[in-house]
Design a protein that fits this description.
By secondary structure, the protein is of the alpha/beta class. The chain folds into two domains: about 5-125 and about 300-330, Quinone Oxidoreductase, Chain A, domain 1 (Alpha-Beta Complex), CATH 3.90.180.10; about 130-275, Rossmann fold, CATH 3.40.50.720. Helices cover about 25% and strands about 25% of the residues. The chain contains nine helices and 15 strands. α3 (about 160-170) links the parallel β8 (about 150) and β9. α2 packs across α3 (about 160-170) and α2 (about 130-140) crosses α8.
Length: about 325
């Protein structure tokens, strides 16, 4: 009996916040591999905020997903058929097959993993989000021991790693997250020095209290009023790795920064970055992250949806901030 592959495709381009009807499901037979190809059964699918931007027909760092195409996304799975001598049946591989249960590849876009950490972690803390934290903080943030590092979306897949890396580097780590439960997790489970609830009415005052010596590095994942509040706390020659602007991804009207003058007066460096522009640094970053995870120096949490049919709901929940840590879909 031929295995069937369930896929999630983009049904229409959303205006504002997407809905489950933005996606549609299709099912087709899993093809046999041709010479040089492998077939992978995906075990986990990564859901990430950047996917929202790929749903728009707009110029960006990567082409948009075409209406009717399978949604993009990172995957980790197992080779189940191979006509490629570089891969054997049973090999565990990280790829980018998107929102589907199986994928076919010539192997050039696959990376074998050694199983030193759980398979799902290769999509999170020892995967793209972890490398994003590593490169953004160390290459652009350039933290020095004793400095204060602030990270927004601190309970998320990237932000949670940023703060822990800052602590390992001898810095004061201050997180920003939504709600008491997330802030408690950031401080008590991840070891940040403080975490500020951006939903609090006195958020600006709480941020000031948590950063008594100002902010030297602001790892920005959110944008909007949260970023404005941090800009008001910058120290001279602060560095801002601009990783994401999740508060703006579903906005129909862009938010204009009100504290942009702080960048000038404090001679701050603000640099946007895309982690795939730095592929030469991935091997060292991945090796360091895997070692620190196995040594217990970096902790992580995963929010896991079950089955490909639950991917749209889980994705929308992630955009609403309902997940803690890395959002995944376990594919059965």
């Amino acid at each position: 009996m031929t295995a069937m592959n369930t896929q999630v495709r983009l049904a229409s381009r959303p205006k504002g916040f997407p809905e489950e009807s933005t996606f549609r499901f299709t099912t087709e037979p899993v093809p046999e591999p041709k010479d040089g190809q492998v077939v992978v059964k995906n075990r986990f699918l990564s859901l990430d905020p950047y996917m929202r931007g790929r749903m728009n027909d707009a110029k960006s760092y990567a082409p948009p997903v075409n209406v009717g195409d399978v949604m993009v996304g990172g995957t980790v799975g197992e080779v189940i058929a191979s006509k490629n001598p570089a891969f054997a049946v049973g090999d565990k591989v990280v790829g980018a097959f998107g929102w589907q249960e199986y994928g076919v590849s010539d192997g050039r876009d696959l990376r074998k993993v050694d199983g030193k950490v759980p398979l799902s972690a290769y999509l999170g803390v020892v995967g793209m989000p972890g490398v994003t934290a590593y490169i953004g903080l160390f290459d652009i943030g350039e933290p020095k021991a004793g400095e204060t590092v602030v990270v927004s979306a601190a309970s998320g897949a990237v932000g949670s790693v940023v703060g822990q890396l800052a602590k390992l580097h001898g810095c004061r780590a201050v997180g920003i997250a939504g709600g008491k439960a997330k802030c408690d997790y950031v401080v008590h489970e991840l070891g940040f020095d403080a975490c500020v609830d951006y939903r609090a009415a006195d958020f600006a005052q709480l941020l000031r209290a948590a950063t008594p010596e100002g902010v030297d590095v602001s790892f920005e994942n959110v944008g909007g009023p949260v970023m404005d509040a941090v800009l008001a706390r910058l120290n001279n020659r602060a560095r801002i790795p601009l990783c994401g602007l999740v508060s703006q991804y579903n906005a129909t009207e862009p938010y204009g920064l009100k504290n942009a003058a702080s960048l000038l007066s404090n001679r701050a460096k603000l640099q946007g970055f895309i982690v795939t522009d730095h592929l030469e640094q991935w091997p060292k970053a991945l090796a360091d992250l895997a070692q620190w995870v196995t040594e217990g120096k970096i902790r992580y949490h995963e929010t896991v949806a079950r089955g490909i049919l639950d991917a749209p709901r889980a994705f929308l929940g992630m955009l609403r901030g309902e997940n803690l840590g890395k959002q995944l879909v376990e594919l059965t």
